[in-house]
Design brief:
Shape: globular
Structural class: alpha/beta
Strand content: 15-25%
Low-confidence stretches: 474-478
Mean pLDDT: 90
Largest sheet: 7 strands, mixed
Helix content: 25-40%
Distance between the termini: 52 Å
């Protein structure tokens, strides 16, 4: 078969990681091809994941905020038999706008897009099969695999996409259910559980762990669980599932090892995701997945085949869109031999769009204590004028400083605007600014950003009362 054209970079997948990799390579003046198996660009993030779930979340937030911010003078109740499509009426427009932006950006940067399934036939060539163009072969100097992931469907859970759903199919439900069981305690499970609880659904969240979001600061998770329970949700800790079955009439029955039966109208299985690598012909490229079903890479996202890189969900956690975007950008620069700054190394924030919102950066309180000690400052949003005006409940900002109380090591936030607020701490950490910077800085009033000053003042007060810190105890953030 004739090779149609040679490229500098071929990117397989057009989700967040692939998109940013392609844009970076194109802006460096290289010839770039993106291969996307779907009919539209954007990947699962745009069409089934991040964008759809966050759009529904905004509807839920508006629903709950109307009651709180009116002082419960105007009570809003969710009518029976509400259609999911009605709650997400803006979704098509939001998805179309974002997809259009991605497509236009690629076109402006001279990136060619082929729609079809890509398969390596050698370390330097791929074949692309599509309905419209048949079979085509092309080669490249470098390849970037950004094929993403899909929901893990355990054998124990008979997903039928009608009564028992995974995260890709959940929003295909026609009507808002009266009750919902959510299996899992990760980011996706937490977001959907809190969104549906806020919409008035009776939600039972089941996880085998002691608490959800095990990688997040325990105090922050405690605040989330308080809010979840206040919305009528229930979290079942140490819940080991023995079986899941639809009774054939109207109910999904989840049986736990404890003997408890949880009966709900619908069920969401959010027990992780698996990398998309089937059909890629990795063996022909000299590649193998590891024991976890992930494509192994080094610190530069290079696989065992030196000119092939992999980024995003296909290489594993943290499986966040923002992280995937940065991995794509960095992989493209490494592939092209371009310089890479280490400014942002280890400074990637985490945003969890639950209700309430959660964000974190750097060390948690426990991590800092384990690495030489810490002084922690807190600011409760209820003590801020903006928090009172906005009727913000369960809001908290934590600043984690080193044992001397001078160097910022971490930021954790829960509450309205958490994913925005965390970036103030991110800039301070990148600039190695001392804690006192927040005290001396003037913040607009009333704002939630004032929480940084309040938390910093808390640290200043605590360090004044603390015993002197020996020089050997002081940890300088790298």
């Amino acid at each position: 078969m004739k090779t149609e054209r040679s490229w500098d970079v071929v990117v397989i997948g057009s989700g967040p990681a692939g998109q940013k990799a392609a844009i970076q390579a194109a802006k460096a003046g290289r010839r770039v091809l993106v291969v996307e198996q779907e009919l539209r660009v954007g990947g699962a993030c745009v069409h089934r994941g991040t964008i759809p779930s966050k759009t529904l979340r905004e509807t839920a937030l508006t629903f709950s905020a109307f009651r709180r911010k009116s002082g419960h003078v105007l009570e809003v109740t969710m009518p029976e038999d509400v259609q999911i499509a009605g709650l997400n009426s803006r979704l098509d427009g939001v998805v179309a706008a974002h997809e259009g932006f991605i497509a236009d950006q690629m076109k402006r940067n001279g990136i060619e897009v082929w729609h079809g399934r890509a398969r390596f036939v050698s370390p330097h060539a791929v074949e692309v099969v599509s309905v419209s163009n048949g079979l085509r072969r092309t080669d490249a100097k470098a390849f970037i695999i950004a094929t993403g992931s899909r929901p893990r469907d355990p054998e124990l859970v008979p997903i039928d996409h009608e009564h028992i759903f995974d995260s890709d199919s959940l929003l295909s439900m026609r009507y808002l259910p009266r009750s919902l069981a959510v299996l899992g305690g990760g980011v996706i499970a937490t977001e959907y559980a809190s969104i549906f609880a806020t919409l008035g659904v009776s939600v039972t969240m089941i996880d085998k762990a002691e608490r959800p979001l095990g990688f997040v600061d325990a105090e922050i998770v405690g605040r989330f669980l308080d809010a979840f329970r206040a919305s009528g949700g229930r979290f079942v800790r140490n819940g080991r599932v023995e079986s899941v079955a639809f009774d054939g009439v109207s109910t999904v029955v989840t049986t736990l090892a404890s003997g408890e039966e949880i009966r709900t109208e619908k069920l969401l299985c959010a027990l992780g995701r698996v990398a998309n690598y089937e059909g890629l012909g990795l063996e022909a490229a000299g590649l193998r997945v590891d024991g976890r079903g992930l494509v192994p890479v080094d610190a530069r996202y290079r696989t065992t085949t030196s000119h092939i890189f992999a980024v995003g969900d296909v290489i594993g956690p943290p499986s966040l869109a923002a992280t995937a975007m940065e991995q794509g950008r960095l992989a493209a620069r490494h592939a092209l031999g371009l310089g890479v700054s280490d400014l942002g190394t280890g400074r990637s924030p985490v945003g969890i769009y639950a209700i309430p919102e959660i964000a974190s950066l750097g060390m948690s309180e426990n991590e800092a204590q384990a690495q030489g000690g810490a002084i922690v400052g807190r600011s409760d949003f209820r003590e801020l004028a903006r928090g009172q005006i906005g009727a913000i409940e369960n809001g908290l900002l934590k600043l984690v400083a080193d044992a001397s109380g001078t160097q910022l090591l971490g930021v954790q936030v829960i509450g309205e605007g958490a994913s925005e607020l965390v970036h103030i701490g991110q800039m301070a950490m990148l600039g190695h600014l001392p804690i006192d910077t927040f005290v001396e800085c003037t913040f607009n009033f009333p704002t939630l950003a004032e929480a940084y000053r309040v938390a910093a003042l808390d640290i200043v007060g605590r360090r004044a009362a603390a015993p002197p810190v020996r020089a050997s105890q002081v940890r300088i953030a790298g």
